[in-house]
Each structure stands twice: as structure tokens, then as C-alpha cells.
Amino acid sequence: MSQVNLNVVRVWGAILTLGFLGLVESVSGQGTIVYVQPSLPINYGTFPISYNLDLNNDGITDFLMSCDIGGVYLTPQGNNLIAVDGSFLVGALNQGDEIGSSLNPVYHWTGGSPALGGQAVFDGQYFYSGNFSAKDAFIGLEFQACGNNYFGWMEVTNYFNIAAGQVLGWAYETVSNTPILAGQVPEPSTVGLIVLGSCVALFRRRRFGRVQD
Asked: Distances from the Cα of 61 to the Cαs of 23, 58, 76, 121, 144, in angstroms?
């Protein structure tokens, strides 16, 4: 391959790379759903620490996660709500469960401070209470912004049968009072995918033509 052709390939490679990076960046905000993934997972456990969780990055804390030797708790701020089960433990929703004004009958909304996971030791035996024992699941959330209600989810993974794990990310529906499915993330832009596909096809045709020459 000549030096000219190699330069052309490099230029096309740069164009495709920039186009792909732009598409990936837009995926987090396409449509009406916003997905947020922290640069590092948020670790929680039975050590004294707390986190102010601002879902929509408006400078207002939406939920407070607090940890101590007895367990981990989520406290909605203001009029925000969390989906819990009949035992007042944070509900572990499965992927695809609908989060809205109406929930699966086994869950209901609360503005209290439910336990994400609790623990205690009696007579040398360890006891865990919670719905996230050794599983990856979702928490149903409802929060307010500018006087409107929005629904979202938070993904939590608990590796073992203890009150400790990680918050992996969260998403919320930007249209007020609109349900969201647990685990639902923005769809890639159809136009962006078409443009990227066209660039790849054009690059392959040009490269194939030069090989024949």
C-alpha cells in the first residue's frame, strides 16, 4: 500500500473513531431517559460513612445513603420515595419491572428510611436482613424536581450474604409522571447508527477498490 493510501486510511480511521465516541457519549442522554454511571462504583457497608445521592445533578440531594455497624439505610429527602416490601426493607426489583405510581403488589412507596441491608451478631452467629443477599438488583425511586415527580432506578450489587455492596449506576425518566422499567437505559440514536454504518461501508469500498488496483 502506498504512503498516500496509508494516510487516507488514517484519516478515515480518525473520522470513524470520533464518530463512534460521539455516538457513545450521546447514548447516555438519548430519548427521554438519562443514565448515570459513576466513574467508580459507590461502595457501601457496615462502616460509618454516608453519601448524598443527587440523581439529576441539580445540586440538590435526592437520597441519603448512610452506613453503620448495624446496616445500610436509604433516606429520601423532601417528598421523595423509595419502593419497599411488606417488611419495610428496600425492594430488590428485577430487570424489566415497571416503576411508576403503581408498583408490583408486593411493593409500595415510602418516605421513611428503609434498610438496604441490616446485620447483627447473636451468640457468635451472624444474621443478615435484606433483599439483596448475593444478588444484583434494582431499587425503585421517585423524586421531585421543580415541583414535578419523576421515576427512576438504581442498580445495586451485593456480592455476599452481608450488608455491603456497590451502587453501579442509576437512570430516570425525564418526562414527569412517566413510568420507567428497572434497568432501562437510553436507546442509541438511529440516525447516528445509520451515519456510522455508512462511513464503515464507504471505507470498505474504497479500501477494496485500492486492493484490486
From this structure: 30, 8, 9, 33, 11
